Amino acid sequence: MFTTLEGLFEPTVIFFGLTNLLVTFQTMMNKILWNFINTGKEASFIDDMIVGTEIKEEHNAIVEEVIKRLAENDLYEKYK
After folding, report:
1. What HEC string does the chain produce?
2. Nearest CA among 78, 80, 45, 39 for reference residue 61
3. pLDDT per residue over 22-39, tens digit each?
4. Which of 40, 49, 58, 66 has the fewest CB atoms within 10 Å, i.e. the most exposed one?
5. Bridge partners (DSSP) listed for residue 50
6. What is the pLDDT of residue 15?
7. CA 24 to each of CA 11, 13, 20, 27, 58: distance values in angstroms, whole numbers, following the listed order
8. Torsion of CA 36, 38, 41, 46, to 10 degrees
9. Angle at Cα 14 formed by Cα 37 and Cα 2, nearest 5°?
10. pLDDT 10s digits, 51-73
């Protein structure tokens, strides 16, 4: 948050040049996907995500849930 003559404001996007931008983004991803990360079924590093399961149906369900959570937080994914 920051204060101006007009009042108190909270940014809705991360400013370019913000210190610790990558740490801030990684923290956000950890909060969004915490339960998959804690069970070891998903790994996230900055903007790379890996889903690892032995059963295809479980894999598909986790991928769908990850995409849903990203969309709920106004994020999107690019497939490689």
Report:
1. CEEECCEEECCCCCCCCCCCHHHHHHHHHHHHCHHHHHHCCEEEECCEEEECCCCHHHHHHHHHHHHHHHHHCCCCCCCC
2. 39
3. 788 888 899 999 998 888
4. 40
5. 43
6. 66
7. 14, 12, 6, 5, 30
8. 70
9. 120
10. 988 999 999 999 999 999 999 99
The token pair that represents 76 in the structure block: 């999107």
Q: Report how far Cα 62 is from the mean position of its chain's Cα atoms.
A: 15
Distance CA 25, CA 40 (A): 20
What is the per-residue burial (b if ≥16 Cβ within 10 Å, else e) of 18-35? eeeeeeeeeeebeebbee
Nearest in space to 25 (alpha carbons), one of 39, 6, 5, 44: 44
Q: Which tokens in the block code for residue 49? A: 């995500």
Closest CA to 78 of 48, 37, 51: 48
